[in-house]
Amino acid sequence: MEINNKVRSQILIDALPYIQKYHNKIVVVKYGGNAMTNEGLKDAVMRDIVLLSEVGIKVVLVHGGGPEINSMLDKVGKESKFIGGLRYTDSETIDIVKMVLAGKVNKELVNALQLHGAKALGLCGVDGQMIVAQKLEGDVDLGYVGEIKKITTKPILDAINNGYVPIISTIATSDDGQCYNINADTAAARIASCLRAETLILMTDIAGLLKDKDNPDTLIPSVNISDVPFLKKTGIISGGMIPKIDCCVEAVRRGVKRTSIIDGRIEHSILIELLSNEGAGTEFI
To answer: Residue 174: what pLDDT?
Structure first.
């Protein structure tokens, strides 16, 4: 579709209040799902981040990498095993998780962002003891899956203050030096709260929170976190949405002004969410 200059100028004018709102503020984006594996969507995400950076918005990218981990486990003949939505991580698996997340995936993202003209710096939770964790205890032993004890923001802020976009893989270290695998949604929420971010965005493969999970036209655009228990009770929030929304609620309670679950299958969904009145998913306030 051709857009004339008048429409182009109006788009920029409409975006101006949002650019002013987020200028010099920190926005944390948890990057995952189809937006990581589809090359067209990946390119759109990189362009979104470059544009936001160029207009003075401080983007922190926290990424997952489940499909890449599964692929590497397949190559070495090891079965991927999940318990309650979390990856069972034995001693062999944690080595592969470190190699894939902190190595392959992280550096590919750094390279992709730099090819689009941004300055990017790859980090993982072990760097500067950014994410300190302990073993996640529960009814079932998940191996080297951790829960966060402390976030040190200095490595992230040092990168931001020197003009870099921090790209963070969620491998953590314990006080005694053991590495743990941390859920990327959980890590993004804690990082956002410790940075006092203006917004946390979780990219997913669904439109957002739906009244009817089988009908994308029933999208709920905005939810007050006080309504979340009722939405769980009525079954509107269920299954895999529960931990994601719990992360959003925790982030808001810890000081993030606004969180959103957006549809990462839509090109430029980050820009739509931040720089337009329309939004691209469900916000939690």
So the answer is: 95
* Radius of gyration for the chain, computed over Cα atoms and rounded to the nearest angstrom: 19
**In the prediction, which pLDDT does 133 show?**
96
Q: What single-letter DSSP state applies at residue 125?
A: T
Tokens 């939770």 found at: 125
Which pTM value belongs to this model? 0.92
Q: What pLDDT is stored for residue 284 in this prediction?
A: 92
CA 255/CA 249 separation, integer angstroms: 10
Separation between Cα atoms, residue 245 and residue 209, nearest integer Å: 9
What's the first-to-final CA gap in the chain, in angstroms?
A: 35
How much is the pLDDT for 3?
63
Which residue ranges in the chain fall short of pLDDT 50? Answer: none
User: What are the tokens at 198?
Assistant: 């203006």
How many CA atoms lie within 13 Å of 177's alpha carbon, on the beta-carbon side?
0
Side-chain half-sphere CA neighbours of 269 within 13 A: 27
pLDDT for the residue 19: 87
If phi over 0 gives left and psi between -120 and 50 gives alpha, with beta otherwise, what is residue 247? alpha
Q: Residue 279, CB half-sphere, CA atoms under 13 Å: how many?
A: 17
H or E segment to which residue 167 belongs:
strand 165-169
Sign of CA dihedral 235, 238, 243, 248: negative
Give per-residue pLDDT as tens, 57-70: 999 999 988 889 98
**Count of alpha carbons within 13 Å of 135, Cβ hemisphere only?**
14
219 beta partners = 210
CB-neighbour burial class of residue 229 (10 A; exposed 0-12, middle 13-18, buried 19+): exposed
Question: Which residue blocks in the chain are alpha helix, DSSP H?
Answer: 5-22, 34-37, 39-54, 66-75, 91-97, 106-115, 154-161, 184-194, 228-233, 241-253, 269-275
